[in-house]
Structure formats: C-alpha cells, structure tokens
Write a structure and sequence with these properties.
- The structure is a single chain.
- This protein is of the alpha/beta class.
- 40% of the residues lie in helices and 20% in strands.
- It has a ten-stranded mixed beta sheet, sandwiched between helices. A two-stranded antiparallel ribbon has the order 6-7.
- Helix 6 crosses helix 7, helix 8 runs parallel beside helix 9 and helix 11 packs across helix 12.
- The longest helix is centred in the first third of the chain and has 19 residues.
- The protein is globular, with a radius of gyration of 20 Å.
- It starts with a strand and ends with a helix.
- The structure holds 3-isopropylmalic acid and magnesium ion (MG).
Length: 358
C-alpha cells in the first residue's frame, strides 16, 4: 500500500525528531512492503516567521489530502503570549484540532520495563507497572467556549471563559473510550467534577447510559481531584481514563511524569474521518534544539500509533514498539533518560539503532 503523510516538523527539536521518525517509516516500508510519501506542512512559530501567521491559509486542506499527519513540536519563547493570537503556535494547534475534527486525544502513559528505575514513585508502586490510556476530549469545553474580557464599573476588569458540552460531544468521546477498553483490560474510569459542575453532571449521565451498553467493561466515576491523587498513589489501577478537555490536559501531564520519561510518550488525535494527527507529548525544547540531544522515541512511537489507529497495521506497530524496547533493553539512552554513569547517545544514533532493529 501507499500512504501519504503530512509532516509538520514545527519548531525547536521538532524537525530533528520528525527526521528520525521518517527514517523509521522508511524501515517499516521496506520490511512490510509499503511506500510512504510525504508532504511538508508549515505550522507553528516557523510559520509565523515565514508567512506572518502560525496557521497559514490552506493548512487544513493540505492535511486533509493526506492519510495521516505527523507533528514534531511547535512553540517556543520567541512566540510568547505578548504576540497577537494569529502569531502564536498554540492558536495553530487548537485550530488544526478543530478543523480536522480531532475530538479524541489518546495519550498512553506506559512505564517501559527497561526504564522502571526512572519512575519517581515508590519502588513497590513502580513494580506493579503503569499502562494507562488517557482519552482526552479535544475539541470542546473551556478550550473552545466563548471568552470575554471587559471593564466593570466597580470591580475593575473582569474575564470569563465558558465551558459547554453537548450530549453528542460527550457520547462520541465516551464511545471511543469504551471501544478502546475492549482492546485492553476492559476498564473505563470517567473523570469529572460532578459535585460542582453542571457540565460534569451531564457528562456523568451520558457515561452511565453508555456503561449500560458495555456490560463487559468495568466502569467507575472518579472526581478529578481524587484522580490527580490516585495517579501518584497507585497509577496501576487505571486502564482507560476518559475526561473532558482541560482535565485531560492537566492529568495527561501528570500521568506522563509518573512514567519518568516524557521523552518516550506518543499521542494520537483522531476523529471520525481521516487524517488522524500523531505527535509526541513533549514540547519543542528550544534549549536543546539542533544539538542532536533530543529523544526521538516519543515521535517514533507516535508513528507506531499511526500504523495502529489510522492504517490498521498492527504488525507494523508492534514491530516499531518491539524495536524501541529492544534498543532500550540493550542499554542505549539519550541524555534525558540516561542513568548516572551511562554515556548517552544522540538523536540520530537512537533513530539508526531503532531502524536497524526493525
Ligand atoms: C497539550 C498542550 C496544548 C493544550 C497547548 C500547547 C495549547 O498543553 O497538547 O497538552 O493545552 O492542549
Ligand atoms: Mg498540555
């Protein structure tokens, strides 16, 4: 088969990690008899520098002409909040999610066996393992609600951000979570703040209705503050965690941190139609950009997610994941995950080793 992939290399270490991921795509193509063709798409701070806006006209159309999108990282101090919205990389990220209808954001937090020592939690907790899938609603809620900022007569300036959710939005993300759990350990934890928020009470009633349709899946409601605590106390209890946009933003950072290696974690953003968008969880790390120091594994594992979720190529996805585990088990480390006394290798060498393993 031939697959066309949009490459958003982006800012900071983005171009380097995407470069390694493309090498891996080529290795997979050679081994399994696929061809991949690429279309470079400009987005983020580099787009602001080149054409004056972070989300150039025609970006969504270019991506829609491809089977999947691979994104390195966007952002950096150069394009901070003092810039007008259309020049900020975050604006472009939110716009592409919305325009491509990518309402489901899958963020696995996995403690890879070779790196159990990197887990900042107690040894007994780490030994139980961590393998959870955060399913974050990505195109609704407070991120996309009406915002306002205005002067009042007696209270100074005032600002509001509206959080709204419809039954339809909740149901489609909920269904994704239940379906995914059937490919895993058949457990869904739905996170809300139903003791305070009306959106959460609606969320919970929709989730309960769905839970009845999936009797083979164990279901629980978890309040968001309790969930934050449980993730550091006993993350092994979670399989699929489904939640609204902002709770998911916060909890997915927390979950990634407890695995001890944010440089290893991929993500997928998918909707009901192609293309899905795949990207590492880490940011653009401008401080180490261009120095062959970045860890390309999160982007390489994002390619594995692309194989699995966009192309339904599970043998190819397994091959990538196995190659990463083999290279880590052999002791190879980039600087971010190097144990004391281990001499780290660079971005390109890590990419080469994984390709060779494939
Ligand atoms: C993420 C990021 C983004 C978000 C920012 C950069 C807008 O934190 O993907 O988690 O909040 O969604
Ligand atoms: Mg975030």
């Amino acid at each position: 088969m031939n697959y066309k992939i949009a490459l958003i290399r982006g800012d900071g270490i983005g171009p380097e990690v995407v470069g390694e991921a493309v090498k891996v795509l080529e290795a997979v193509g050679e081994k399994f008899g696929h061809t991949f063709t690429y279309e470079d798409v400009l987005l983020g701070g580099c787009a602001t520098d080149a054409v004056g806006k972070s989300y150039p006209d025609g970006t969504a159309e270019k991506c829609r002409a491809c089977d999947a999108v691979l994104l390195g990282a966007v952002g950096g101090p150069k394009w901070g909040s003092d810039r007008p919205a259309e020049q900020r990389p975050e604006t472009a990220l939110l716009a592409i999610r919305k325009d491509l209808g990518l309402y489901a954001n899958l963020r696995p937090a996995v403690l890879r066996p070779a790196l159990a020592g990197a887990c900042p939690l107690k040894k007994e907790t780490a030994e139980k393992g961590i393998d959870l899938m955060m399913v974050r609603e990505l195109t609704g809620g407070i991120y996309f609600g009406k915002r306002d900022r205005y002067q009042t007569e007696d209270r100074g300036e005032e600002a509001t951000d509206l959080m709204a959710y419809s039954e339809k939005e909740i149901e489609r993300i909920g269904r994704r979570a239940f379906e995914l759990s059937r490919l895993r350990r058949h457990k869904v934890s739905s996170v809300d703040k139903a003791n305070v928020l009306e959106t959460s009470r609606l969320w919970r009633s929709v989730m309960h209705r769905l839970a009845a349709e999936y009797p083979d899946v164990e279901y629980e409601d978890v309040l968001v503050d309790n969930c934050a605590m449980q993730i550091v106390r006993d993350p092994g209890q979670f399989d699929v965690v489904v939640t609204e946009n902002m709770f998911g933003d916060i909890l997915s950072d927390e979950a990634s941190m407890v695995t001890g290696s944010i440089g290893l974690l991929p993500s997928a953003s998918i909707g009901d139609t192609a293309p899905g968008l795949y990207e590492p969880i880490h940011g653009s790390a401008p401080d180490i950009a261009g120095q062959d120091k970045a860890n390309p594994i999160a982007t390489i594992l994002s390619v594995a997610m692309m194989m699995r979720y966009s192309f339904h190529l599970s043998a190819e996805a397994d091959a990538i994941e196995r190659a990463v585990d083999a290279v880590l088990s052999a002791g190879w480390r980039t600087p971010d995950i190097a144990e004391p006394g281990v001499t780290p290798i660079g971005t390109r060498k890590m990419g080469d080793l994984i390709c060779a393993e494939i």
